[in-house]
Model the fold of this input.
Amino acid sequence: MAKAAAKTKAAAAPASVERRPALAGRALSAPGVKVEMLPPAERISLRAPEASLAALSKALGLTLPTKPKTSATKDGRTALWLGPDEWMIIDEAGNDPLADCAKVTALHSAVGISHRNVGISVAGPAAAATVNSGCPQDLSLEAFPVGAASRTILGKSEIVLLRIAADAFRVECWRSFSDYVFTLLSEAAGDAAN
Amino acid sequence: MNAAFRISGAGRLSQAKTASFSFDDKPYVGIEGDTLASALLANGVHLVGRSFKYHRPRGFLSAGAEEPNALVQIVRDDARKTPNVRATVQELYDGLTANSQNRWPSLAFDVGAVNDIASPMFSAGFYYKTFMWPKWAWKDLYEPKIRATAGLGVSPEKPDPDHYASRYAHCEVLVLGGGAAGIAAALAAAETGVRVILADEQAEFGGSLRFESGARIDGQDGYAWAQAAIAKLKGMDNARVLSRTTAFGYYAQNFVGLVERVSDHLKNPGHELARERLWQVRANRVVLATGAIERHMVFANNDRPGVMLASAARTYLNHYGVAVGRNVGVYTANDSAYAAAIDLKKAGVNIAAIVDLRDNPSGAVIDEARGLGIEINFGRAVVSAGGKLRVSSMTVQPKNGGGQRTIPVDAILMSAGWTPSVHLFSQSRGKVAFNDETKRFVPGTYAQDCVSVGACNGTDGLDATIDEAYAAGAKAAKEAGGKIGKGSKPKVDAGEIWSRGMLGAAPGAGPGTTVKAFVDFQNDVTAKDIRQAVHEGMHSIEHVKRFTTNGMATDQGKTSNMHGLAIAAEELGKPIPQVGLTTFRAPYTPVTFGSIVGHARGALFDPTRRTAIHPWAARQGAVFEDVGNWKRAWYFPKAGEDMHAAVNRECVTVRKVGGLFDASTLGKIEVVGPDAAKFMELLYTNPWEKLETGRCRYGIMLREDGFIYDDGVVGRLAPDRFHVTTTTGGAPRVMNHMEDYLQTEFPHLNVWLTSITEQWAVIAVQGPKSRDIIAPLVEGIDMSDEAMPHMSVREGKICGVPTRLFRMSFTGERGFEVNVPADYGEAVWEALWAEGQKHGATAYGTETMHVLRAEKGYIIVGQDTDGTVTPNDAGLDWAVGKKKTDFVGIRGLTRPDLVAKGRKQLVGLKTKDPKVVLEEGAQIVADPKQPIPMKMIGHVTSSYWSENCGRSIALALVAGGRDRMGETLYVPMPNGTIEVEVTGMVFVDEKGERLNG
Done:
């Protein structure tokens, strides 16, 4: 499995063309909250039955969470529980989770989605109110504590929401929705401190 | 510089803070904290509007949200003209400009008032009866005229420059209504530590405590207690206090819509502040503390300016320091109007007389009024109000008839009793119950986790209200997980009790009378109209309501419903509960479109999706078209080119040299797992098990009924990994379709689906030079025909970045599709473009893509198919695995109708005149001379000018099409019939040699 993916990893010559991430560098500050694009990260969509979790956890260097709405983070790599057999792995340390999973023989599916998604940081005392402008979830610390993760909506776009601190969220969305999501968060940020 | 009717020492506003405003272009001065209503009343202005139907002069009935009369237009600038604002809730700001509505040429002299004289013509059901005939007149005469006179006020003609915010919120206890009951409930709940939201529509909390001068709580004046309690709640982290916030809708599972008016009360809101904020709150428990609304008395000319609710006059005095007149009459059927008379008398206003319909009431307030020397008349009725633009007298008569006496007054305060506000309870699908003793509907059976407290629950008296509310707040919090609260219940030292009263028409407006005794002020419905509706056969209250429009105005009958019901019940000879109450619906008060729309306008109306290569196309001057939510480059005009010229050039260049096309929007799904091929076998008509790694196949997906659902090229990357492409528009539904079958029909398969549409930017390089353009940039892939034949896929590198390189063609030319991770898409495109330039290649858009594929007879699902086309109909039988025993749609395909002769089949059409381009969607007939309606045997699905063919080409679905090759058919059009010849679907390179050319 994942042989094809492994092959692309093998030739690691530097790219001769520049990478142009969506909305790179965009940021907006409002009273109580800052919304900004996060740098590129390595991401995979991981699907696997329960029997494979131990092997995959070992290969990935963290314990895949099995409780709904939770995540696990270690050494710059975060596994977000998205469904009973589904995780999104985000690696911000520059390591390749696709290559790590390629070594695992246990049943699973690992698909690279590093470029499919973009990450947006929403941070500050008014961060939860900003996200709540378009996301119907209860974002109190009791219901959505630090480390909580959920595939949900923001206005008319699907997002994956991860709470990285009491007053900071990572909003993940698909690349072509990033303009919509960023703009909505920016508008909402202007109202959130009120 | 006190306004004439402002009483010094009365009210709670600081007289030092003045605010200038204008009404109908006349300047006035009010005080900060005033409403527009209180400021106008302070200046002695009662006449503020004309009624909807009869154009009768109208003044203020109330001091709150129930106001049916005082609707004005607030004008900030050209773009901000808000009609139908209730002057009783509009807060005054310096510079406010307001205009009256529904009058011409002026408020005092209104031509439309002729309707009042002609009112016998406009009786109940007038619209239904009058505009029925002649039938033609409806569209040309009646409807335009009615539309012109319908509605009040003037809409702004410019886009709304304000912005509107929205917020989702969750809490354990949501308290709606910030009077004594709501505050007590919120305190009790908040003291347990749970999250509490308290909302009230007024600028200041306190509800009836604004006017109830007799209330004392915890040793303070009731209103002062309310402010102190609100300050305490605001200081608690777990409580959110929202003023100027109306709960307008109560939906399923304690989901409540609130609209907060953020800046309508400010002089210069600035652009930072939203105008309104929509709160969508999910609450574990809801406490309804919505109070009660006073009813008016139904008597002749009860709508004259100056005739108002007793509690309103009391509010204007005790909160705003304004006397509503100097010589005031009172007409009541319960105690509460006495308190108004007493407060006004003490403030120095003459009370001409209290007229009490009751025979011999007794009690403290009556004694107090008598002690103040106020004339009290028991067992008497006010049978008519005198005056026109302002009330000038009241005519009093013993209620059972007898001599009349006319008393001069400049205002009449009235009270028929109090109606519990069960609107939100009713919206929550709770069932109201009629209390026969107190003659009111109160909450009966609950449908959701909510509780009603205080006046809205029919609880009388401040003491009982606070007891009930505090206990309910604590209980709701406990049920929602709260701890035992540390606070203590507020102690009521003194309060007022008002109950009872009367329903229906007062003496003088009863059966047999034709006076204008208004039940519904806003829709001009009188007691007579209700009775007439019953006489004309409306026996259900729902029919009476619609026939008379009683309660159907924007105030939703807050003051009129109970009177209307009682009059109908009396006329029907039935008890009130048997006649029933109409259902209350959201919104409680009118809600702006802006607050519902929130952020979702302009760029945020709907997501606009752009590809990674979009910026390049935009720089090249591409014209874009919308494909679903995507913006796709349509064509790339050079200087001086129109669309036709650009597309012709692009089409020719691709076949002659080559072209680059952004195909990134194509749906892409990675199918991974040991059972991937098995799954593909089940979802597609084609065989997949034997497809070798590194090869591609064109796949067709059917629905269960056998009709084509989607198509696309699929590449096998590994034995257990397929790269599936779908149509652009089909991407989400194909993913859902596959996931649906995987989870419900084939859960035993070890395979998973991942959308990779946005992971890969896709650059189609098509044309004889395509390989020459790509090859210099590729590493690690042998692109020779032997090593990489048509319909194959390789992984390697291009420009140093990973690629999935497909050799495939949607043009019929040698072609490739270069997939690269999306962030590299634009840079790789630029590198390929530079290579292409060396050969003279073009960039092309979706229009050229459409023409080129039609020249080859390649179908587009959704254009050449419409959900009733089978693979056979489309000439794609070759793509259905003949040896396969199962796939989605296999049984559908054998249905008798799907294998019958004469089905519509996809064929090519050539017009006899090659220059004529058919219209897509045009109908086809076999014999143009047959009588109309003709038998239509098919329609054109795709039609283009083909510069490569030097003529027009078309695809069409035609009954028995493949048996008609060479036949002449006809396309009747408005400007004449077009002759066409049925042909094969391939117009260019029929043998397909160019794929390797």
Summary: The domain at 902-997 of chain B is CATH 2.40.30.110 (Elongation Factor Tu (Ef-tu); domain 3). Residues 586 and 711 of chain B are 46 Å apart (CA to CA).
